[in-house]
Design goal:
By secondary structure, the chain is an alpha/beta fold. It is 41% helix and 15% strand.
Length: 234
């Protein structure tokens, strides 16, 4: 958390399903809660079970206000969305969101977006998975809905599992030093994207990842290069 703050990172994504994640976030943001935007997720069947899980999230985070709560993978979303909207009306949460991993969910998600039921959406978006670019992202931009992109590095596979090293030479101008930064810059250079959430288990990666956020927006030519070079090296 110290590394996050010193490198300009203030958004923390968690979930009740992520082991002790919420408790750890609560402890490490204690005394500086106002410096972070906290997000978590409800992932359970049933209204009472959902309310109980949400109560545990507030307790684990050691806070009376959570910036964003999302329905995880759309599990029982018709039950949970009214609960979250009520919490928002009470001023206990800032935004209501939903997450989805599969493209089959996107038509229903777009209906939810049009209905005004959600303020934010968390979906996969990276140099290979671009399915959301044609319809979902333009709709989100039109409606003013926040887009949180997960798996910008595909859990590190687009860096660690490449069969050959990408050519970094064309990226020297913008100040990109690593391929991970190139992949992150590709995502956040899309003006329809609010933020991206790369997972890492190594604190030293935070500085490297954060550097991508301070880069200028990449022109389309460089975004095309990063995508084509990733595909070439896979």
């Amino acid at each position: 958390m110290d590394n996050c703050l010193s490198n300009g990172i203030n958004f923390i994504d968690s979930a009740a399903a992520y082991g002790n994640s919420e408790m750890v976030v609560g402890k490490t943001t204690s005394g500086r809660r106002d410096k972070f935007y906290l997000a978590t997720k409800v992932r359970v069947e049933g209204k009472e079970a959902g309310e109980a899980q949400l109560a545990k999230s507030f307790k684990a985070f050691q806070t009376e206000y959570i910036d964003l709560i999302q329905v995880h993978n759309m599990i029982d979303h018709r039950t949970h969305l009214p609960t979250l909207q009520a919490l928002k009306a009470e001023g206990k949460i800032g935004m209501v969101g939903i997450t989805a991993m599969v493209t089959e969910a996107y038509p229903e998600i777009m209906d939810l977006m049009k209905s005004g039921a959600v303020d934010a959406l968390q979906i996969p978006y990276n140099v290979v998975q671009t399915e959301v670019a044609d319809e979902l992202l333009p709709l989100a931009q039109d409606l003013g809905i926040g887009i949180l992109t997960m798996e910008p590095l595909k859990k590190g596979r687009f860096v660690q599992d490449l069969k050959q090293q990408p050519d970094m030479a064309p990226l020297a101008g913008p100040g990109i030093d690593t391929w991970a930064q190139a992949l992150l810059a590709w995502v956040i250079s899309d003006p329809r994207v609010t933020l991206t959430i790369p997972a890492t288990s190594r604190p030293e990666r935070i500085r490297e990842n954060a550097a991508a956020g301070s880069l200028p927006k990449l022109p389309n030519e460089l975004r095309d290069y990063i995508r084509e070079e990733t595909l070439r090296c896979m």
